[in-house]
Amino acid sequence: MSSKPTPPDGLVIVDKPAGFTSHDVVAKMRGIAGTRRVGHAGTLDPMATGVLVLGVERATKLLGHLALTEKEYLGTVRLGQNTVTDDAEGEITSAADASGVTREAIDAAVAKLTGDIMQVPSKVSAIKINGVRSYKRAREGEDFDIPARPVTVSSFQVHDVRGEVAEDGTPVLDLVVSVVCSSGTYIRALARDLGADLGVGGHLTALRRTRVGPYGLDAARSLDRLQEKLEIMPVAEAAAAAFPRWDVDARRARLLTNGVRLEMPDEYAGRGPVAVFGPADRFLALVEAQRGKAKSLAVFG
Protein backbone atom coordinates (compact mmCIF):
# COMPACT_ATOMS: atom_id res chain seq x y z
CA MET A 1 0.00 0.00 0.00
CA SER A 2 1.55 3.29 -1.11
CA SER A 3 1.65 6.14 1.37
CA LYS A 4 0.25 9.56 0.47
CA PRO A 5 2.93 12.06 -0.56
CA THR A 6 3.76 14.62 2.12
CA PRO A 7 2.17 17.98 1.29
CA PRO A 8 4.67 20.76 0.57
CA ASP A 9 5.54 23.25 3.28
CA GLY A 10 6.00 26.94 2.44
CA LEU A 11 4.61 30.02 0.75
CA VAL A 12 3.07 30.19 -2.71
CA ILE A 13 2.93 33.62 -4.36
CA VAL A 14 -0.08 33.64 -6.68
CA ASP A 15 -0.90 36.15 -9.41
CA LYS A 16 -4.65 36.18 -8.72
CA PRO A 17 -6.85 36.39 -11.80
CA ALA A 18 -9.82 38.77 -12.05
CA GLY A 19 -13.17 37.29 -11.02
CA PHE A 20 -11.72 34.99 -8.35
CA THR A 21 -12.28 35.61 -4.66
CA SER A 22 -9.31 35.01 -2.36
CA HIS A 23 -11.22 31.99 -1.01
CA ASP A 24 -11.56 30.63 -4.58
CA VAL A 25 -7.75 30.77 -4.90
CA VAL A 26 -7.28 29.00 -1.55
CA ALA A 27 -9.72 26.27 -2.62
CA LYS A 28 -7.85 25.80 -5.90
CA MET A 29 -4.50 25.62 -4.05
CA ARG A 30 -5.85 22.95 -1.68
CA GLY A 31 -6.40 20.77 -4.72
CA ILE A 32 -3.01 21.56 -6.27
CA ALA A 33 -1.04 21.03 -3.03
CA GLY A 34 -3.08 18.05 -1.82
CA THR A 35 -3.80 19.47 1.64
CA ARG A 36 -6.58 21.37 3.33
CA ARG A 37 -4.05 23.34 5.37
CA VAL A 38 -3.86 26.41 3.12
CA GLY A 39 -4.50 30.04 4.04
CA HIS A 40 -3.92 33.53 2.64
CA ALA A 41 -2.29 36.70 3.97
CA GLY A 42 -4.81 39.48 3.22
CA THR A 43 -7.71 39.32 0.79
CA LEU A 44 -8.01 40.79 -2.68
CA ASP A 45 -11.42 41.81 -4.08
CA PRO A 46 -12.72 39.64 -6.97
CA MET A 47 -12.20 42.53 -9.43
CA ALA A 48 -8.52 42.92 -8.43
CA THR A 49 -5.58 40.95 -9.78
CA GLY A 50 -2.03 40.46 -8.60
CA VAL A 51 -0.03 39.28 -5.62
CA LEU A 52 -1.85 37.02 -3.18
CA VAL A 53 0.38 35.26 -0.64
CA LEU A 54 -0.72 31.75 0.34
CA GLY A 55 0.72 29.58 3.10
CA VAL A 56 0.74 25.78 2.82
CA GLU A 57 1.05 23.49 5.85
CA ARG A 58 3.38 24.95 8.53
CA ALA A 59 3.77 28.21 6.60
CA THR A 60 0.18 29.10 7.56
CA LYS A 61 1.69 30.11 10.92
CA LEU A 62 3.52 32.96 9.14
CA LEU A 63 0.43 34.41 7.47
CA GLY A 64 -0.97 36.49 10.33
CA HIS A 65 2.35 38.28 10.63
CA LEU A 66 2.81 38.73 6.87
CA ALA A 67 -0.68 40.23 6.59
CA LEU A 68 0.53 43.26 8.54
CA THR A 69 3.21 44.24 6.03
CA GLU A 70 3.19 47.08 3.49
CA LYS A 71 1.37 46.63 0.17
CA GLU A 72 1.74 48.24 -3.24
CA TYR A 73 -0.90 48.69 -5.96
CA LEU A 74 -1.38 49.97 -9.51
CA GLY A 75 -4.91 51.06 -10.33
CA THR A 76 -7.30 53.24 -12.31
CA VAL A 77 -9.58 55.77 -10.60
CA ARG A 78 -12.53 57.18 -12.55
CA LEU A 79 -13.56 60.70 -11.57
CA GLY A 80 -17.15 61.68 -12.42
CA GLN A 81 -19.12 58.69 -11.15
CA ASN A 82 -19.94 57.22 -7.73
CA THR A 83 -20.92 53.57 -7.35
CA VAL A 84 -22.58 51.67 -4.52
CA THR A 85 -19.43 49.56 -4.00
CA ASP A 86 -16.84 52.32 -4.68
CA ASP A 87 -15.58 50.19 -7.59
CA ALA A 88 -16.71 49.09 -11.06
CA GLU A 89 -18.60 46.06 -9.70
CA GLY A 90 -21.42 48.18 -8.26
CA GLU A 91 -24.16 50.18 -9.93
CA ILE A 92 -23.62 53.91 -10.54
CA THR A 93 -25.38 56.05 -7.93
CA SER A 94 -24.48 59.52 -9.25
CA ALA A 95 -22.59 61.17 -12.09
CA ALA A 96 -21.06 64.60 -12.71
CA ASP A 97 -19.04 66.20 -15.51
CA ALA A 98 -15.38 65.82 -14.46
CA SER A 99 -13.82 67.39 -17.56
CA GLY A 100 -13.16 70.68 -15.78
CA VAL A 101 -11.12 69.15 -12.95
CA THR A 102 -7.53 70.38 -13.27
CA ARG A 103 -4.31 68.45 -12.67
CA GLU A 104 -3.45 70.94 -9.92
CA ALA A 105 -6.73 70.19 -8.12
CA ILE A 106 -6.13 66.45 -8.47
CA ASP A 107 -2.60 66.72 -7.05
CA ALA A 108 -3.83 68.83 -4.11
CA ALA A 109 -6.59 66.29 -3.32
CA VAL A 110 -4.14 63.38 -3.60
CA ALA A 111 -1.78 65.13 -1.16
CA LYS A 112 -4.59 65.23 1.45
CA LEU A 113 -4.94 61.45 1.14
CA THR A 114 -1.22 60.79 1.60
CA GLY A 115 0.50 60.09 4.92
CA ASP A 116 -1.21 59.04 8.16
CA ILE A 117 -4.93 59.45 7.47
CA MET A 118 -8.29 58.35 8.86
CA GLN A 119 -10.23 56.22 6.37
CA VAL A 120 -13.80 54.92 6.37
CA PRO A 121 -13.86 51.50 4.65
CA SER A 122 -16.43 50.78 1.93
CA LYS A 123 -19.81 49.56 3.19
CA VAL A 124 -19.42 46.40 1.10
CA SER A 125 -16.09 45.52 2.75
CA ALA A 126 -15.54 42.54 5.04
CA ILE A 127 -15.13 44.77 8.12
CA LYS A 128 -17.13 43.45 11.06
CA ILE A 129 -19.58 45.84 12.77
CA ASN A 130 -20.73 44.34 16.07
CA GLY A 131 -19.74 40.89 14.85
CA VAL A 132 -21.55 41.11 11.48
CA ARG A 133 -19.74 41.63 8.15
CA SER A 134 -20.35 45.08 6.71
CA TYR A 135 -21.23 43.71 3.24
CA LYS A 136 -23.93 41.51 4.81
CA ARG A 137 -25.52 44.50 6.51
CA ALA A 138 -25.31 46.48 3.25
CA ARG A 139 -26.93 43.65 1.23
CA GLU A 140 -29.82 43.56 3.69
CA GLY A 141 -30.42 47.28 3.18
CA GLU A 142 -29.41 48.24 6.70
CA ASP A 143 -28.49 51.87 7.41
CA PHE A 144 -25.24 51.92 9.40
CA ASP A 145 -21.96 53.75 9.82
CA ILE A 146 -18.44 52.35 9.79
CA PRO A 147 -16.01 54.16 12.08
CA ALA A 148 -12.94 55.71 10.44
CA ARG A 149 -9.68 53.84 11.01
CA PRO A 150 -6.08 55.05 10.94
CA VAL A 151 -4.11 53.91 7.87
CA THR A 152 -0.82 55.01 6.32
CA VAL A 153 -0.54 55.89 2.64
CA SER A 154 3.20 56.32 2.22
CA SER A 155 2.95 57.05 -1.52
CA PHE A 156 -0.02 58.03 -3.73
CA GLN A 157 1.04 59.05 -7.24
CA VAL A 158 -0.92 59.96 -10.38
CA HIS A 159 0.94 58.81 -13.49
CA ASP A 160 -1.59 59.71 -16.20
CA VAL A 161 -4.88 61.59 -16.61
CA ARG A 162 -7.12 60.60 -19.52
CA GLY A 163 -10.33 62.31 -20.58
CA GLU A 164 -13.03 59.77 -21.47
CA VAL A 165 -16.79 59.62 -22.02
CA ALA A 166 -18.60 57.04 -19.88
CA GLU A 167 -21.31 54.74 -21.26
CA ASP A 168 -23.98 57.05 -19.86
CA GLY A 169 -22.45 60.00 -21.74
CA THR A 170 -20.80 61.61 -18.70
CA PRO A 171 -17.40 63.24 -19.37
CA VAL A 172 -15.06 61.52 -16.91
CA LEU A 173 -11.36 61.47 -16.09
CA ASP A 174 -9.47 58.20 -15.70
CA LEU A 175 -6.40 58.46 -13.47
CA VAL A 176 -3.64 55.84 -13.58
CA VAL A 177 -2.34 55.73 -10.00
CA SER A 178 0.11 53.82 -7.83
CA VAL A 179 -0.27 53.46 -4.06
CA VAL A 180 2.04 52.15 -1.34
CA CYS A 181 0.14 51.70 1.92
CA SER A 182 -0.25 49.91 5.21
CA SER A 183 -2.33 46.80 5.70
CA GLY A 184 -6.04 47.59 6.03
CA THR A 185 -6.02 50.46 3.51
CA TYR A 186 -8.85 50.29 0.97
CA ILE A 187 -7.82 51.59 -2.46
CA ARG A 188 -11.46 51.93 -3.54
CA ALA A 189 -12.05 54.12 -0.47
CA LEU A 190 -9.17 56.33 -1.66
CA ALA A 191 -10.89 56.56 -5.07
CA ARG A 192 -14.22 57.42 -3.43
CA ASP A 193 -12.67 60.07 -1.15
CA LEU A 194 -10.62 61.59 -3.98
CA GLY A 195 -13.77 62.03 -6.07
CA ALA A 196 -15.70 63.43 -3.09
CA ASP A 197 -13.01 66.03 -2.36
CA LEU A 198 -13.02 67.12 -6.02
CA GLY A 199 -16.83 67.38 -6.00
CA VAL A 200 -17.46 65.00 -8.91
CA GLY A 201 -17.46 61.56 -7.28
CA GLY A 202 -15.06 58.73 -7.96
CA HIS A 203 -14.65 54.98 -8.00
CA LEU A 204 -12.02 52.36 -8.78
CA THR A 205 -12.21 50.71 -12.20
CA ALA A 206 -9.08 48.51 -12.12
CA LEU A 207 -6.67 47.31 -9.44
CA ARG A 208 -3.53 45.21 -9.51
CA ARG A 209 -1.56 44.44 -6.35
CA THR A 210 2.11 44.50 -7.28
CA ARG A 211 3.68 43.74 -3.89
CA VAL A 212 2.95 42.34 -0.43
CA GLY A 213 5.88 42.98 1.91
CA PRO A 214 8.98 41.68 0.10
CA TYR A 215 7.02 39.53 -2.38
CA GLY A 216 6.41 41.14 -5.78
CA LEU A 217 4.93 40.17 -9.13
CA ASP A 218 8.30 38.77 -10.21
CA ALA A 219 7.77 35.95 -7.68
CA ALA A 220 4.05 35.47 -8.48
CA ARG A 221 2.76 32.63 -10.65
CA SER A 222 -0.59 32.11 -12.36
CA LEU A 223 -2.89 29.33 -11.13
CA ASP A 224 -2.52 27.57 -14.50
CA ARG A 225 1.27 27.55 -14.16
CA LEU A 226 1.05 26.35 -10.54
CA GLN A 227 -1.29 23.56 -11.67
CA GLU A 228 1.42 22.38 -14.06
CA LYS A 229 4.26 22.82 -11.57
CA LEU A 230 3.82 23.86 -7.94
CA GLU A 231 6.49 26.43 -7.12
CA ILE A 232 6.77 26.84 -3.37
CA MET A 233 9.02 29.10 -1.30
CA PRO A 234 10.37 27.14 1.69
CA VAL A 235 9.32 28.50 5.09
CA ALA A 236 12.91 29.42 6.02
CA GLU A 237 13.45 31.39 2.81
CA ALA A 238 10.08 33.14 3.18
CA ALA A 239 10.83 34.14 6.79
CA ALA A 240 14.32 35.39 5.93
CA ALA A 241 12.85 37.59 3.18
CA ALA A 242 10.07 39.06 5.30
CA PHE A 243 11.49 39.56 8.80
CA PRO A 244 14.69 40.73 10.54
CA ARG A 245 17.03 37.77 11.09
CA TRP A 246 18.61 36.68 14.39
CA ASP A 247 21.20 33.87 14.30
CA VAL A 248 21.77 31.87 17.50
CA ASP A 249 24.22 29.10 18.44
CA ALA A 250 23.30 25.45 19.13
CA ARG A 251 22.90 25.95 22.89
CA ARG A 252 20.53 28.89 22.56
CA ALA A 253 18.67 27.14 19.72
CA ARG A 254 18.02 24.21 22.06
CA LEU A 255 16.86 26.49 24.87
CA LEU A 256 14.58 28.46 22.57
CA THR A 257 12.83 25.41 21.11
CA ASN A 258 12.35 24.10 24.68
CA GLY A 259 10.40 27.22 25.60
CA VAL A 260 13.09 29.25 27.37
CA ARG A 261 12.69 33.02 26.82
CA LEU A 262 16.15 34.08 25.71
CA GLU A 263 17.67 37.51 26.20
CA MET A 264 17.49 39.39 22.87
CA PRO A 265 20.03 41.88 21.53
CA ASP A 266 18.86 45.51 21.81
CA GLU A 267 18.88 45.93 18.03
CA TYR A 268 15.64 43.92 17.76
CA ALA A 269 13.63 46.03 20.21
CA GLY A 270 10.50 47.47 18.60
CA ARG A 271 11.08 45.77 15.25
CA GLY A 272 8.11 43.44 15.39
CA PRO A 273 8.48 39.75 14.48
CA VAL A 274 12.05 38.45 14.17
CA ALA A 275 13.04 35.19 12.41
CA VAL A 276 15.41 33.09 14.53
CA PHE A 277 17.87 30.78 12.78
CA GLY A 278 20.09 28.15 14.39
CA PRO A 279 23.14 26.28 13.08
CA ALA A 280 23.01 24.93 9.51
CA ASP A 281 20.57 27.72 8.58
CA ARG A 282 17.71 25.97 10.40
CA PHE A 283 14.65 28.20 10.86
CA LEU A 284 13.58 27.84 14.48
CA ALA A 285 10.90 30.37 15.34
CA LEU A 286 9.28 33.76 14.94
CA VAL A 287 9.76 35.79 18.12
CA GLU A 288 9.17 39.33 19.31
CA ALA A 289 11.23 41.33 21.81
CA GLN A 290 9.29 41.85 25.02
CA ARG A 291 11.13 43.53 27.89
CA GLY A 292 14.41 42.43 26.36
CA LYS A 293 13.42 38.77 26.04
CA ALA A 294 12.21 36.68 23.13
CA LYS A 295 8.45 36.11 23.23
CA SER A 296 7.60 33.20 20.95
CA LEU A 297 5.03 33.90 18.20
CA ALA A 298 5.36 30.63 16.27
CA VAL A 299 7.81 27.72 16.61
CA PHE A 300 9.07 25.87 13.54
CA GLY A 301 12.33 24.18 14.57
From TrEMBL:
Limits of the tRNA pseudouridylate synthase B C-terminal domain: 188-230
Pfam family membership, one: TruB_N
Matches recorded under CDD domains: PseudoU_synth_EcTruB
Keyword Glycoprotein: no
Ranges of residues in domain tRNA pseudouridine synthase II TruB subfamily 2 C-terminal: 243-300
E.C. number(s) listed in UniProt: 5.4.99.25
Catalytic reaction(s) noted: uridine(55) in tRNA = pseudouridine(55) in tRNA
InterPro entries, sorted: PsdUridine_synth_cat_dom_sf, PsdUridine_synth_N, PUA-like_sf, PUA_sf, tRNA_psdUridine_synth_fam2_C, tRNA_psdUridine_synth_TruB, TruB_C
Keywords per UniProt: Isomerase, tRNA processing
Pseudouridine synthase II N-terminal domain boundaries: 31-187
Membership in a protein family: Belongs to the pseudouridine synthase TruB family. Type 1 subfamily.
Protein purpose: Responsible for synthesis of pseudouridine from uracil-55 in the psi GC loop of transfer RNAs.
Designated name of the protein: tRNA pseudouridine synthase B
Organism: Streptomyces thermoviolaceus subsp. thermoviolaceus
